[in-house]
């Protein structure tokens, strides 16, 4: 079974940084397309960043230049480095597998980690 | 403002059928069969219910049916049950970005 477990969320001041992690079991983050999707309180889903198996990365315009998606050398860890955080970045951040090879959907999701940006 | 348009809410009684629409453009839904639907209960992660317009992942009830006509995709749920009460989101591949776009979500209330 595939399991994705996020961590690293918390309270941070505007302008600060936070690093989210997602530990995967049952799949390799290096050979799959992986993503971060967020949901602001009471709002809808918004994809934040995607990394392809070949390392190509994509970012939503709202986070471009501030967030960095990466994988470590293991097969199990996906990261999201969030810099210059703004109050509008407050959201639950989900790690999800993005089935982007020949189709386009998110099939496995973590339980999410809450990021709150506030002074 | 979301790229795909969904009604904010729909409701139905137990055992009835409801349909949730998802309207896009020629850059997404109309020209690509990559529509997917997600169910999200309060405080829980989204769950994939439909992909590639009408395909159901293993374990998803056949009471959920996806379809598409023109630039509008639809999710029909038949035999409504209390457990179906949730938020539902559609996505589609979008040629403008080469990635997916989300709908704004629809809250389903089972009366």
Q: What does the radius of gyration of chain B come to?
A: 13 Å
SSE sequence of chain A, one letter per element:
EEEEEEEEEEE
The greatest interface between two protein chains, and residues involved on each side, is:
A-B, 21 and 23 residues
Low-confidence stretches of chain B: none
Task: Indicate the mean pLDDT of chain B.
Answer: 96
Give the DSSP E fraction of chain B (strand runs of 2 or more residues): over 45%
Largest beta sheet of chain A, briefly? 7 strands, mixed
Q: What is the quaternary state of this protein? A: heterodimer
Q: What Rg of chain A do the Cα atoms give? A: 13 Å
Q: Helix count of chain A?
A: 0
Count of beta strands of chain B: 9
How much helix is in the residues of chain B? under 10%
Number of helices of chain B: 0
**What is the H-and-E element order of chain B?**
EEEEEEEEE
**Stretches of chain A where pLDDT falls below 50 for ≥5 residues?**
none
Biggest pleated-sheet summary of chain B: 6 strands, mixed
What does this structure look like?
- The complex is a heterodimer of chains A (119) and B (111).
- Chain A is mostly beta strands.
- Helix content of chain A is 0%, strand content 52%.
- Chain A has no helices and eleven strands.
- In chain A, strands 2, 4, 5, 6, 9, 10 and 11 form a seven-stranded mixed sheet that branches. A four-stranded antiparallel sheet of chain A has the order 1-3-8-7, with no helix packed on it.
- In chain A, β9 and β10 form a beta hairpin.
- By secondary structure, chain B is mostly beta strands.
- In chain B, strands 1, 3, 4, 7, 8 and 9 form a six-stranded mixed sheet that branches.
- In chain B, a hairpin with a 6-residue loop joins β3 and β4.
- The termini of chain B are far apart.
- The model of chain B has no long low-confidence stretch (mean pLDDT 96).
- Classes of the chains: A mainly beta (119), B mainly beta (111).
- Chains A and B meet through β5, β9 and β10 of A and β3, β7 and β8 of B.
